[in-house]
Amino acid sequence: MRTEPGKPKKTTALQTWQEMLAFLRLNHSELVRNWFDQLQIKDFDRGYVTIVPANPTQYTYLQNQCIGAFSEAAQAVTGRLVAVTFERPGLMGENHYSLAPLDQLMLNEENVFGNFVVGPCNKLANAASIAVAREPGKRYNPLFIFGSVGLGKTHLLQAICHEIHQHRSEANIIYISSETFVNHFVEAVEMGTVHEFRCRYRSSDVLVIDDVQFLANKDASQEEFFHTFNCLYQAQKQIVLSSDRPPNEIETLTERLISRFSWGLVSGIDKPCYETRMAIIRKKAKLKGLELPEDVVSFLARAIESNTRELEGAITKLQGLAMLDGQGVTMELAQQVVPEPRIVNWDLSIDQIVETVTRHFNVKVTELQSKRRTKTITLPRQICMYLARKLTRRSLEEIGGHFGGRDHSTVLHATKTIAALIETDLNLRANIESIAKSLTGNRLA
Ligand code: ADP
Ligand code: MG
Q: 350-440 adopts what CATH topology?
C-alpha cells in the first residue's frame, strides 16, 4: 500500500481514505477516534481531499486538531502534494456566548459511563459521578475529581454531561477546560463583554470545568470564577471540577476557592491495577472493532502500567499495523507498539547480564568481580553496571554488590561514563546495543 512520493496512482476514494486511516492510526494514534471509520471522502483527485464529517462536533474536532495530520496522511498515501479540507456541516452556532447545544460542547461520544471500566482505583469517583449525573445539584456539590494524567478524569466529567443531557435535554450544560474559561474571560475583558460572559456562565444549570489547576496564578480569573461558583452554588446548580492534584495542593489557589472546592466531595483516581488494565484494553479493542488475542492483552497490560491514554494509543497503533499487514494482531506486532523506554525485562538477572557481557568481551566473571582496574576489565565491568541499571530494577547498591562489593557511587559513575562514551563511540554503542538486544530481544531505549 505504500506509494513512492511523486508516483500518483489510480485508486478509489474509499481506498484512499482507508489507507489514510491506517497511516493516521500508526503515526497519530492519539488523534484517531472510532467515528473516523464512518467519515466520507470526496474530490480526492482535484488537488485536494475533502473529508465530510457527520455532525458539527466532528467538524469542530477535525478542524481544530487534525488538519496537519490529515494532510500528512493524504500526501503519504497519494504521493502527491494534496491539501485536506473538512466540509462544514450546516447549522453551526456562530456565537460562542449563545447557549450551546450539546453538539458544541466538544464532548467525545465515547466518553460515556458504559465505556468506563470500574476498578478499585476509580470506584468512588465513578460512583460519585453517576450520583451527580442522576441528581444534579443534590448529592455532591461540587464534585471534585483529581488524579494524574490519563487516568480518566475527562472521561468521567464528559460522561456526567452526556448522562444529564440524555435525561434532561433542556438543561444548560457547560463543559470547558479551565484554560478556556480563562481565555474567554480575558477576551471578554478586552472586548468589553464581561456582562455577557457573566450571563453565559451564571445561567448554566451544570458547570463542568476540566483541569482547574490551570487557574493557578491567574488571579483575575480566579476572582471571576469565585463569583461564578457562589452564584451557581447558591442556586443549587451542579458544579463538577477536575484537577491533576487535590485542591489544597494547587499552588497559588486562593484559600477561599480551596475551601469551596472541598465543600462537596473530593475523590481521587489512582493508577489502574493489572486486572483493570486488562479490562480497559478489552473494552477499547472492542470499541474499535479490533480482535486481540489474550496473550497480547496481558502483554500490553504488563508493558504499559501507568497511563490509560498510552494504552489506548498502543491499541490504535496496533490496529494500524494489523491493517497494513492485512493480518490479525500478533505478539510480534504488539511488541512494536509498546513505548520504548518501558521495554524493560524485569525478570532479567544481573548474572545473565554478566554472562552475556563476559562472553562478548571474552573476559572471565571472576575478573570482573576482582579489584583489577586495567581497561580490558574496567570497560566490560562498567558496561555490566550500565546495562543492569537500564534493564533491571536493581538498586545501585544491589548492582555494586555483584561486582566485588563496590558502592553505589561506583555504579553511578560507571553508568554515566558509559552513557557519555556511547554518545561519541559509535562502535561501542553498536556493541552495547547488540548485547542489550540479545538480552531482551529489543532495542536499548
Ligand atoms: P485524564 O483527563 O485524567 O487525563 P482521560 O479521561 O482523557 O484522562 O483518559 C485518557 C484515555 O483513557 C481516554 O481515552 C479514556 O477513555 C481512557 N480511560 C481512562 N480510564 C479509563 C477507564 N477506567 N475505562 C475506560 N477508559 C478509560
Ligand atoms: Mg483530561
A: Chromosomal Replication Initiator Protein Dnaa; Chain: A; (1.10.1750)
